[in-house]
Amino acid sequence: GSTIGILGGGQLGRMIAVAAAQLGYRTHIFAPEDSGPAADVSPNWTRGAYADAAALSAFADSVDVVTYEFENIDPSAVDTLARHGLVRPGAQALRVAQDRLAEKRFVCDLGGLTAPFAPVDSLDDLEAAIETIGSRAILKTNRMGYDGKGQTRLSEPGDAVGAWNAIGRQSAILEGFVTFAEEFSVIMVRGADGAVRFWDSPANVHVDGILSTSTAPAGPLIEGQVDQARALAKQVADALDYVGVLTLEFFASADGPVFNEMAPRVHNSGHWTIEGAVTSQFENHVRAICGLPLGDTGLAAPRIEMRNLIGDDVAAWGEILSDPANHLHLYGKHEARPGRKMGHVTRLVL
Ligand code: ATP
Ligand code: MG
Ligand code: MG
Asked: In the structure, which protein residues have their CB atom closer than 6 angstroms to any atom of ligand 1?
């Protein structure tokens, strides 16, 4: 049997490991923590720093393919990995997707629509960016942000100092605030042979910067913009010679789909595919990185709703299970801190 190496041991790694096990693969996690949600299902776990070239090389040598659930890994570390084994998706995808400025430039060069943006590396830069973009804007750190962390909203020019301090005075991007009615994601998989499949694009609702629900199929506004968004996503994947699941987030605006960000991995807005699609994003990710044919991405029910269980939401798990339409997923996290993703529930509406 072959072994899949996964960088990162959170819930995404856990769900990749479940899919891998079903297909007869073993998994080996490499993560900076002692343990995590993936430890319950992955037989092997190595604790190590993502910057430790020697440890990464040994890890790559010990597995058949390396993938990741966490994209914020130093590109030089990924280059190290790539010298010792097969890394899918590759270093180029990671380089682009872990840097907001790089990913927006990349997508603009391919003809995609984004919010107006400007690089910000100082308070002077921020004040100049507000002059051109306007003060209805969001300042985001270029790297490491997730679940709305590392970003702050501005509404007037006087907010510059506070915003610059709020994100910790680090390399950032100022984005004009996009007016949109709905948000959606394109979740796609590209095989080692370049074959591409898309799942239905869910409508995503965020609360306090964190994904709350994903519903498929989406309504007419999103459906009318999906083809254009998919075409862009395919261009991105082809340009990066991408292998695996790739997710792009969009705003459905009056001007069409506005690209927000991409994730070079399985994505929270695709968790509904475990029960709601013929083949889940996790299984197709494993199939793709292992060079296997891709599975059918069609819907398994007329309507599917995924809801994240964040912090204390998880206390309702018993009630959730009492409705037979619900599928409960708990990530095995012990402490229900506010804002922490503890699990999710997928509901098939027949
Ligand atoms: P994720 O957990 O999805 O990785 P993140 O921390 O990377 O989140 P973003 O996706 O950039 O953050 O932003 C979170 C949410 O904030 C978006 O889904 C959207 O609702 C809102 N948002 C972000 N950028 C803009 C913008 N330029 N205009 C309007 N709303 C925005
Ligand atoms: Mg993000
Ligand atoms: Mg996002």
From this structure: 115, 138, 140, 145-149, 175, 177-178, 183, 206, 209, 249, 260-261
